[in-house]
Amino acid sequence: MKILIMGLPGSGKTTLANYLFKKIKKKATIEWFNADTVRKIFDDWDFSEQGRINQAKRMKILAEDSGTDYVICDFVAPTEEIRKIFDADFTIWLNTIDEGRFEDTNKVFESPESADVVIDYFYNEEEMDKLIDVITS
Fold first, then answer.
1. pTM confidence score
2. Which one of 27, 62, 88, 133 has the lowest number of neighbouring Cβ atoms within 10 Å?
3. Is there a contact between 71 and 2 (Cβ–Cβ < 8 Å)?
4. Can you tell me the distance from the alpha carbon of 29 to that of 65, in angstroms, rounded to the nearest whole number?
């Protein structure tokens, strides 16, 4: 299952991904790809529209090639086009902040038309554990 955790920079994507990764790996095979880590590996810090599309394609390939039961990818995924390119099996939208740290990202960010889970505040551990049950059931 390819899981997208998306939202503005600073919305809690990496924190949630880290928690889910640690808990799910106790019961299934899982891989986690963080956008900043992937950009660092590929030395690609292009945040133009094409750069963001390239990152979505890269994240998709990494996820699909992982060979694990679950793959978590956390990245902004600011537009419907980018989310369609990534083609997640399960989408979690962190709608916890109104504006992110980067004005260029705020300008292009489109609220998703749909998401499997919308989180509008920072979850505590109990709530994150319930989310794991939803994902893995």
1. 0.96
2. 133
3. yes
4. 13
User: What is the rounded distance in angstroms from the CA atom of residue 31 to the CA atom of residue 73?
Assistant: 9
Q: Where are the domains of the chain?
A: 2-97
3-state SS record for 14-41: HHHHHHHHHHHCCCCCEEEEEHHHHHHH
Put the strands of the sheet holding 117-119 in their side by side order. Answer: 30-34, 70-74, 2-7, 90-94, 117-119
- Please report how many Cα atoms fall inside a 13 Å half-sphere around the Cα of residue 13, on the Cβ side: 25
Q: What are phi and psi of 3, to 5 degrees?
A: -105, 125
Q: What 8-state DSSP symbol labels residue 84?
A: H
Structure confidence at residue 108 (pLDDT): 97
The CATH classification of domain 2-97, taken from the options 3.40.50.720, 3.40.50.300, 3.30.43.10, 1.10.150.240? 3.40.50.300
3 falls in which pLDDT band (50, 70, 90)?
very high
* Gyration radius of the chain's alpha carbons: 14
The pLDDT tens digits for 51-96 are 999 999 999 999 999 999 999 999 999 999 999 999 999 999 999 9
